[in-house]
Automatic annotation (TrEMBL):
Keyword Plastid part of the UniProt annotation: no
Similarity-based family: Belongs to the adrenodoxin/putidaredoxin family.
Keywords: 2Fe-2S, Iron, Iron-sulfur, Metal-binding
The keyword ATP-binding is annotated on this UniProt entry: no
InterPro entries cross-referenced by the UniProt entry: 2Fe-2S_ferredoxin-like_sf (IPR036010), 2Fe-2S_ferredoxin-type (IPR001041), Adrenodoxin-like (IPR001055), Beta-grasp_dom_sf (IPR012675)
Protein name: 2Fe-2S iron-sulfur cluster-binding protein
Signal peptide positions (record): none
Residue stretches making up the 2Fe-2S ferredoxin-type domain: 1-105
PROSITE patterns: 2FE2S_FER_2 (PS51085)
Organism: Nibrella saemangeumensis
Length: 107
């Protein structure tokens, strides 16, 4: 199992346990775990509504793609630790990481 922590917009934290080899993105796991995350473009790195801040574990993640960097550049609150959840695959690199949800909410 892969364990990582998600902090919602109110500061509440929950540890998620995801089976290895599940072949999903972090965005898909967050939506399946009923987090209020828009993910308008469905995971194509075109909208940035699945913006997360990586509080711990940033160095273990694969590098950002050009498409992800371009989208993050459009966000006024993006920082060095910002990622798009749709561009992060759930694998052992997420073990022990902490993600804070930053993207827009459903109305």
């Amino acid at each position: 199992m892969i364990q990582f922590t998600v902090e919602d917009r109110t500061g509440d934290r929950q540890t998620l346990e995801i089976p290895e080899g599940i072949n999903l993105s972090l965005m898909e796991v967050l939506k399946a775990s009923e987090y209020n995350i828009l993910a308008t473009c469905g995971g194509m790195a075109l909208c940035a509504t699945c913006h997360v801040q990586v509080l711990e574990g940033l160095d273990a993640l694969p590098p950002q793609t050009d498409a992800e960097l371009d989208m993050l550049d459009t966000l006024p609150d993006a920082g060095f630790d910002s990622r798009l959840a749709c561009q992060i695959r759930v694998d052992e690199s997420l073990e022990g990481a902490i993600f804070r949800i930053r993207g827009e909410e459903h109305e």
